[in-house]
Amino acid sequence: MAISLKSMRYFTCALSHGSISRAAEELNVAASAISAAIDQIEAQFQLKLVNRFRARGISATASGRALARKFAHLLEEYEAVLAEGSDLKHALTGSLRIGYYAPVAPAFLPEILSTLATTEAAPTIHLEECNNDRAQAGLLAGDFDAILFVPDAVPPQVDFEVLIEAPAYCLCSAAHPLAQQDAVDLRQLGGEPVIVLNRPVAVDYYRQLLEAAGQNPATLAYANSSEMVRSLVGAGHGCAILNMRPALDISYAGQALAARPIRDPLPSLSLAVGYDRSNPRRVVTRFVDACRAYFREGAGAALVVTGREPAPR
User: Fold this and answer.
1) Taking a C-beta distance cutoff of 8 angstroms, is the pair 305, 259 a contact?
2) Fewer CB near the last or first residue (10 Å), C or N of the chain?
């Protein structure tokens, strides 16, 4: 039978006082519980560890003293581990591991993370761009402390909250005729070559939008990064349907782009933050709070195209 930490604590306290009753008083337990712990430990090792005297308390045998020292060391190590765990939970130091499936995350994640810089030592940030499934599996496996992802077919074990709803919009070159309109219809894309963001969830979502509208435009290219899509569009190769945009309507090559809302009633894509909501570390809570503030009160609204935003820069 294993010896519990409680039994070790009762044993060492009784030996340090030389009295079962005084140990019981200090630990606020019954004297019988102290006596039972001593009996259990003696039975486990099959050694006489304590001499009992009816009127004079107890004294340790040589074996008892040796064991009490080892127990005391184990209890000290245990308390140290608990203290370190408590510090980790409440500190902003240590590591923060974030997995993200968000093609334009570089447009907002650095600003969100800047709020973690305080007068305290800042955490070490580990960022991993991944697909939606990897993000969710990584959170459940403990690879990530938090994830940014599209909550599509989420398993019940993943706790998350939606940060923003991003409607689909049309991206075209600033020189394209569609850029002169306040908004576009999906039917107008029927005669345009389309650049498709070839990422899990996204590619099926865009295909379903066009099919539901009865449109089947020719696909010119598939690209698995939003910046390649934007650069191809900026160079005049075609249009694209996306959901979030960077702060500037300029491609990597410096070509001007135009983001136009789509008039058709279309389902949005959601961006969510996933984390252990039952018992999060302080740094995780701070990160989630920063995400909420950014998208609900801060600059995050500029990353979606709703038809109400100011003219593109």
Assistant:
1) yes
2) N
Whose tokens are 């306040």? That residue is 182
Judge whether 130 and 101 are in contact, CB under 8 Å: yes
Q: What pLDDT does residue 1 have?
A: 60
pLDDT digits (tens, 9 = 90+) for 53-92: 877 789 989 998 899 888 888 888 887 776 666 555 555 5
Tokens for 232? 């191809």
Residue 309 three-state SS: coil
Q: Which CATH superfamily is domain 168-261 in?
A: Periplasmic binding protein-like II (3.40.190.10)
Q: Are 169 and 303 in contact (CB under 8 A)?
A: no
- What pLDDT is stored for residue 93 in this prediction? 58
Classify residue 254 as left (phi > 0), alpha (psi -120 to 50) or beta. left
Asked: is 95-164+271-298 a CATH 1.20.1740.10 domain? The reply is no
Write the DSSP assignment of 63-93 as a string of letters.
HHHHHHHHHHHHHHHHHHHHHHHHHHHH-S-
User: In sequence order, which residues have a C-beta less than 8 Å from that of residue 192 and are 6 or more positions away?
Assistant: 178, 217, 238, 239
Instruction: Between 257 and 313, name the one with better pLDDT.
Output: 257
- Which residues of the chain form CATH 3.40.190.10? 95-164+271-298, 168-261
Tens-place pLDDT, residues 162-175:
999 999 999 999 99
**Cα distance between residue 139 and residue 161, in whole Å:** 14
The pLDDT of 180-198, averaged and rounded, is 87
Query: How far, in Å, CA of 77 to CA of 294, rounded?
Result: 42
